[in-house]
Amino acid sequence: MPSVRQNATRGVIWIFAGFTLNQSIRLAANLLLTRLLVPDMFGLMALVNVFIMGLQLFSDIGIGPSIIQNRKGESPEFYNTAWTIQVMRGAMLWLGSLILAWPISLFYGKKELLWLIPIVAFSSVISGFNSTSLFILNRRIAIARLTLLNLCTQICSTAVIIAWAVFSPTIWALVAGSLISSLTKSLLSHRLMPEMKNRFAWNRSCAREIFSFGKWIFISTAMTFLASQSDKLIMGKLFTFKMLGIFTIALFISDIPKMLITRISNIIIFPVISKFNDLPRKELRIKILRKRRIILIGLGILVMILTCFGDLFILRLYDKRYAQAAWMLPVLAIGIWPYLLSLSINKALFAIGKPRYHAYGNFLKFIYIFIGLPMGFYLWGIPGAVAVVASNDIPLYISVNHGLRREGLSGIRQDIHATLLLVICIAAVCWMRIWLGFGHPFSQIP
User: Fold this and answer.
1) 39: burial class by Cβ within 10 Å (0-12, 13-18, 19+)?
2) Tens digit of pLDDT for each residue in 291-301?
3) Mean of the pLDDT values across residues 181-185?
């Protein structure tokens, strides 16, 4: 049998390969769609997705993490109870969308939201039937099949979106792609482990364990939504939908390192640390920091590239309607560094059963956004609002590191070294840009 280390190494390779292909497809599709659709559609769809994500996160009881973390995670009575809860949750999410669609459409003054939200939210019903093999394979760190599943899903949904947009350049193209993505993933998930058949079941003991573990997951994910998506909710009122669409394009590209570390954290770091969570804290900390150093170097390179050359990328590849994203991208890119530092180690807190520090951090992040975003917009306009969004991960970083220090898993010294190296590299590359006559990447800020 392959060792945990071998599985983790193979998993990282598959994640990098799959992530590269996935993001290449997304970027190519994004470049094409920005020429077929107007910025307002991206802004409107971004707002719809925020509310769908809110429903999902405010009802997340950690079904997947429970299967991964619990010692009975692979027993049929446990994962079938989890699957039953998942199906019920998907149906309740859709009913919630029907209730919320009308007041949301009134608040934002967009009648389209009245039917867009329930239609897109139906993907929650479809996803509720996803096979629990997704979590079993994640638990075993068997990443190859999960990566291929995500690629197939991405290709199918992208093909539908582009084909629809070519013949009918409306927001329906984005809606259809969202539903096809959910349907494809749900159907294919049941082919990942044909020997495992999900069925409706209920075991009180298993359900009790899921809800007991999930109470802090629920709080944490609810706070995650408020922390990560409240900026778009507020911007939906402060910005025009066109400007929100332009911001979404800059955010889409700046979030590439964030999406990468999220996948590595959820699929590799969490299950691996969960297998070693009985070790003495000092020994566990050494194991984590030794591997984390390599991850931070890779993430630092991505942040440096996006910060130093993101504006040139936007101006060369996107048409003039999205030119303002050129100054937003470098600001957002450098701002995600505290988040990357946090997420590259915070799963250690989840693995030892201490997710509350992450929940506290996200709550502080939400307060920061709720107060700072309107204030930044009022004082400095759009640049002020974007700067607040870029710096909103600092409260989360402080809370997570407070928890890590208390639990004997602190990596603050490693964070300082990595941050100093990143600052030096960015300064050196920016100096070279100026010397070559391209100016600095923040010169486009109005």
Assistant:
1) buried
2) 889 889 999 99
3) 93
What long-range pairs does 231-234 form, CB within 8 A, spacing at least 24? 231/369, 231/373, 231/388, 231/389, 231/392, 232/46, 232/47, 232/50, 233/47, 233/50, 234/369, 234/370, 234/373, 234/374
Predicted confidence (pLDDT) at residue 2 exceeds the cutoff of 60: no
**C-beta separation of 327 from 442 below 8 A:** yes
The amino acid at residue 97 is S
pTM above 0.70, yes or no: yes
Structure tokens at 76: 């049929």
- Cβ proximity of 404 and 273 under 8 Å: no
Q: How far is CA 232 from the centre of its chain?
A: 14
Q: What is the mean pLDDT of the chain?
A: 87
Domain locations in the chain as residue ranges = 1-229, 239-446
Q: Could you please report the per-residue DSSP string of 28-83?
A: HHHHHHHHHS-HHHHHHHHHHHHHHHHHHHTT---HHHHHHHSTTTTSHHHHHHHH
Residue pair 321/298 in contact (Cβ under 8 Å)? The answer is: no
Residues 311-345 have pLDDT tens digits of: 999 999 898 889 999 999 999 999 999 999 998 88
The whole-angstrom separation of Cα 280 and Cα 291 is: 17
Question: In which residue are the tokens 């197939």 written?
Answer: 152
Q: Provide CB contacts within 8 A for 163, sequence distance 6+.
A: none
